[in-house]
Specification:
Helix content: 55-70%
CATH architecture of one domain: Orthogonal Bundle
Radius of gyration: 25 Å
Number of helices: 6
Strand content: under 5%
Order of helices and strands: HHHHHH
Number of strands: 0
Length: 153
């Protein structure tokens, strides 16, 4: 995630009203998400409510593209939406979100390390199970069980 200064929330909302030229479908196509995703993000507060036309259609500006790209980039890193919302709230103040981002990314690294350890252990268990199989002369199991006939109880 890049650390660049952002304008104030007021400046961003004014830009949206002034430059709101994209429909939800156009914005979705441009960013690579479904229109329903954008509506969900709006309901969740991840993106501000879009100005509406007289026909009640949402209109989005370039700031929405930037915001959605930020959200998607954070999701690719495995951050949860609540964490992304926290980063966006810092970003919206016009300050750098680097410090909270660093903490979230370090937490995510720890989660990944734990998952790798779990998967490594699981892989070891599977390898031991495969190595313990009898091989080509494996008898057919008893119907309804995994045990070969000679190991039935």
């Amino acid at each position: 995630m890049e650390c660049t200064p952002r304008s104030s929330v007021l400046d961003m909302s004014m830009a949206t009203v002034a430059g709101g030229s994209m429909s939800v479908a156009q914005l979705a196509a441009r960013v690579g998400v479904r229109p329903d995703t954008i509506r969900y993000y709006e309901r969740s507060g991840l993106i501000p409510p879009a100005p509406r036309t007289a026909g009640d259609h949402r209109r989005y500006g370039e700031d929405s593209v930037d915001r959605l790209q930020f959200i998607r980039g954070a999701q690719r890193l495995g951050l949860r939406l609540r964490d992304i919302a926290d980063l966006l709230s810092v970003r919206d103040t016009g300050t750098y979100p680097c410090e909270p981002a660093e903490e979230l990314l370090r937490q995510r690294i720890e989660e990944i390390d734990a998952e790798l350890a779990r998967l490594t252990s699981l892989r070891g268990d599977l390898v031991r199970m495969v190595d313990a199989l009898p091989g080509i002369d494996c008898p057919d199991p008893v119907p309804g069980t995994w045990c070969p006939p000679n190991l039935r109880r």
